Amino acid sequence: MERNDCRILHQRIIDMVLATEMTKHFEHVNKFVNSISKPLAALEESEETEKNQEAVNSMLRTPENWTLIKQMLIKCPNVSNPCRPLEYYIEWAARISEEYFSHTDGEKQQDSPMAMPAFDRNTCNIPKSQISFIDYFITDTFDAWDAFVDLPDLMQHLDNNFL
Please, which domain of life does this record's source organism belong to (predicted)? Predict the structure, then answer.
């Protein structure tokens, strides 16, 4: 691999990994909605199809927007546990909660500030925490992605231009 291609690939991998960082969740989703979903929806509703085709192609070809799309492609499955069949969802919610409980236990033992005080095993209600997770993170994320992939001509644009 050429040195420059390797550098570009390395940066793209870093961008994708950082997209899973939950402290930047709303920043990523809002950028995606405002830079891609809303403008594409407005273009799709307009009647000037040939001009729109060019605008859609141009919008999807920008490196920034292409990065946002890939970040959402990583972000959605990263937080998608509530979308699994119920038996798997419950199992994995318990596993991730146990991981967070362990972190909180360690912080307590070291007398450190707790990064996630909601995950104190003595007070946490897993079903309520999952409802909050769905309300706070999942709904808007998947609504934004659904609006993007549900645009009638978008998949054709992607097929024609990128795949």
Answer: Eukaryota
pTM score, two decimals?
Answer: 0.76
Q: What are the residue ranges spanned by the domains of the chain?
A: 1-78+139-163, 81-124
Contact present, 161 and 50 (Cβ < 8 Å) = no
Q: Tell me: the pLDDT tens digits for 86-126?
A: 899 999 999 999 999 999 999 999 999 988 889 999 999 99
- Helix ranges (H only) for the chain are 3-18, 25-32, 38-45, 49-61, 63-78, 86-109, 126-133, 139-149, 154-161
Say if residues 94 and 126 touch (Cβ distance below 8 Å): yes
Angle at 98 between CA 95 and CA 100, to 5 degrees: 115
